Structures are given as C-alpha cells and as structure tokens.
C-alpha cells in the first residue's frame, strides 16, 4: 500500500480504499502504515524495535521494583527475628510483611546469592 500512496490524496484515503477491499479497518491499516513509515525513517516516532525495547525495560523495571520490595520485607523480617523479646529469651520471629510468603522471600534471597537454609 505504501508504494501506491501517490495514487491517493491522503494516507487516510488510501487506508479507506485498501481497507474496504481487504476487509480491514481503516484505523488499523493507518496505524500499520504509519509504523512502517517510522520504521523506514520517513516519519518521526519510536520504531518497532524501540517500542519493544521500551516494553522490555518497563517489565525489567517492574521486576526489579518487586525484588527490591521483597528484599526490604526480608530485611524487616530478619531484623525482627534478631530482636530479643523481653518475655522470651529465645529469638523473636516477627510477622511476614504485607502478604509476602517466607518462601518467596527466601527464593529472592537465594537468587541474589544470599545463603538461606533449606528448612527456612
């Protein structure tokens, strides 16, 4: 379609004509055509590979934020474990923070290279 754009007054007109023949919505066809122009360097905007990289970085950022939250919770958990209880001479175990299981905390700690016992 892009090679026949000169046959139409606008990109929208081209998308309408081609979309009607192919049974594709003109909006979808227009987005695809615009993205193809961006990828070819004919228009400004984020290329398909850049958009994919942005999505990948957003996923990585979300995963790192989650890992940081788990590690913070683990630090609070283990700090509470080392706090002596005034009524009990044994080590006090505090509650696990905000719904994170001890198993998931230990998994993240192991992934980070922290030695955690198998029975923990």
What would the keywords be for this entry?
coiled coil, rod-shaped, two-stranded antiparallel ribbon, DNA binding, mainly alpha, 2 domains
Describe the structure.
- The protein has helices spanning about 10-20, 25-40, 50-80, 100-110; strands at about 85, 90.
- Helix 1 crosses helix 2 (about 25-40) and helix 3 crosses helix 4 (about 100-110).
- Strand 1 and strand 2 (about 90) form a beta hairpin.
- Helix content is about 60%, strand content about 5%.
- Residues about 90-95 have low confidence and may be disordered.
- Strands 1-2 form a two-stranded antiparallel ribbon.
- It is mainly α.
- The longest helix has about 35 residues, at about 50-80.
- The termini are far apart.
- The protein has two domains: about 1-45, no CATH class; about 50-110.
- Keywords: Coiled coil.
- One of its GO terms (biological process) is DNA transposition.
């Amino acid at each position: 379609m892009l090679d026949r754009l000169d046959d139409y007054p606008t990109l929208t007109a081209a998308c309408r004509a081609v979309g009607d023949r192919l049974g594709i919505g003109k909006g979808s066809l227009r987005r695809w055509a615009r993205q193809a122009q961006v990828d070819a360097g004919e228009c400004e905007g984020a290329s398909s590979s850049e958009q994919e990289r942005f999505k990948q970085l957003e996923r990585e950022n979300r995963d790192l934020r989650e890992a940081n939250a788990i590690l913070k919770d683990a630090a609070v958990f283990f700090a509470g474990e080392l706090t002596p209880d005034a009524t009990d001479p044994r080590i006090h175990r505090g509650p696990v923070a905000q719904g994170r299981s001890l198993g998931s905390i230990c998994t993240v700690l192991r992934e980070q290279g922290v030695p955690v016992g198998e029975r923990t």
